[in-house]
Amino acid sequence: MCGIFGYIGEESASEMTALGLFILQHRGQESCGIAVSDGKKLKLIKEMGYVKEVLYQERIEELDGYAAIGHVRYPTRGKPTLENSQPHLIETLSGPAYAFASNGDVANYRKLRKKYESKGVFFHTDNDGELLGRMLVYKIEREGKRIIDAVEELMEEVNGAYSALFLTTHRIYAFRDPWGFRPMVFGRTEKGFAIASESVAMDIIRAKEWREIEPAELLIISKEGVEGVKFDEEKLRRGRKTRAHCSFEIIYFARPDSYQYGQFVHDKRVLLGEKLAEKDSVEVDAVVPVPDSSNFMALGYARKRNIPLCFGLIRSHYIGRTFIKPSQSIRDESVRQKFNPLYRFFHNKRIVLVDDSIVRGTTIRKIVRMIKGAGAKEVHVRIASPPVRFPCRYGIDTPTFEELIANRMEIDDIRKYIEADSLMYLTVEELQDVLDEPENFCYACFNGKYPVLEEE
Ligand code: SF4
Questions:
Q1: Most informative mutation of 445, 449, 452 for ligand 1 (most atoms within 8 A of CB)
Q2: How far, in Å, is the centroid of ligand 1 from the Cα of 442?
Q3: Alpha-carbon torsion 158, 162, 163, 168, what sign?
């Protein structure tokens, strides 16, 4: 999972982009970077680390220009190294340079990489963003294609998830895959245009208006204005009628103050909590969320059942999200440092603990132990999503079957493992009841029905 942001206009493009990336930091914390154009040449800064550490004021002042694209990375395809971080700067022998940044994961990466290597394209990384960028540049520079045609051809060849930004010296090309896996929005500010992974960035940069970019839509954005091209999304999906928005974005990944896939994330999280409450009758004294991503689910649950909502777990905000730390040892360390229970609150209480999902089971187990250690009499775990049984192939780090606890264990065994007194999940059907246009979502990590296969 990653976040992308682009800006073109009269304000400092790199400052606007650094601000946008800062707002999207929750989408990736391993590395970040900005590529900027002053109308003649492109410059790039990227490094491992948080936006505030890498893209500080003095540094971005060196990046003068009116068009920029930026990226925060959370690694899925390719190791967490500087080479694999984005944007990718692609220089050509004939002069022009391009930059590319994307969010998602290409399912047929290996096949396409081999195909383009056999055409003489040389890759410097094992990142799918580089593959997409070099595919476009090959079509433009070697085959002499117009950028619009190159993007359409790329959509015909690539299977999988990509919300992408392509920077030339004068324009930004923004496009989204035909399945619409990952979100992306376009907005106008007082003095320019912006593109972001999530609408929350539009709020912060004070966009006057914004909208979602459609699947299979390409926007060509210059200082002067914007043109749009909408390709035939159904044809580009190889005949599949429905889209495949990531339901996990609504459950966990997106900020609750974002609007995506035609719905408000916050509202859907409250409804997911209500849905859990509707089928629950356990007698407890309080509902406690695992902060922050489950707060609104716990609110919905507590309101529906008329049980007090209590913030009994205090979260440190100076540690990254546990789910998106790339190795188990780092994850373990983070959990211990991240949550602390209010000891006096839990004493002798029966608790419903609401969480958005269980992936590996390690975090929730530690939290249940922590709460019981603080004196809770009973801890009933309620998960506002179905069991995650299958790895994601479209950009979220649930990489192997073995790591997914719901793939290895039945629900009651999971309950025993996490040391809870009871455990309840939503079903896929209940999740679908909550979403608008549920047929247009991907649920593959819950039901194994992958909307796009590797070599389709
Ligand atoms: S498999 Fe799961 S995480 Fe991946 S795109 Fe589909 S719903 Fe989202």
A1: 445
A2: 6
A3: negative
Length of the chain counted residue by residue: 456
CA distance 152 to 218: 9
Q: Which residues are designated catalytic?
A: 2
Positions of E strands within 191-312:
192-196, 209-212, 217-221, 226-230, 245-246, 259-260, 263-264, 286-289
pLDDT tens digits for range 97-134? 999 999 999 999 999 999 999 999 999 999 999 999 99
pTM: 0.94
Distance 392 CA to ligand 1 centre (A): 5
Whether 450 is in the pocket of ligand 1, judged by its Cβ within 6 Å, is: no
Torsion of CA 207, 208, 209, 210, to 10 degrees: -10
Q: Please give the structure tokens belonging to residue 280.
A: 């629950």
| Cα 96 to averaged position of ligand 1 atoms, centre (Å) | 37
Nearest alpha carbon to residue 430 among 442, 421, 438: 438
- The dihedral through the CA atoms of 61, 63, 69, 73 has a sign that is negative
| Secondary structure of residue 55 in the 3-state scheme | coil
Assess contact for 16 and 192: CB atoms under 8 A: yes
Ligand 1 atom 8 nearest Cα: 246
- Residue 143 makes CB contacts below 8 A (sequence gap 6+) with 150
CB of 396 closer than 6 angstroms to any ligand 1 atom: yes
Which residue has the least CA distance to atom 4 on ligand 1? 392
Q: Which two tokens stand for residue 15?
A: 């400052």
Mean of the pLDDT values across residues 341-352?
94
Q: Which domains does the chain have, with CATH numbers?
A: 2-239 (3.60.20.10), 252-447 (3.40.50.2020)
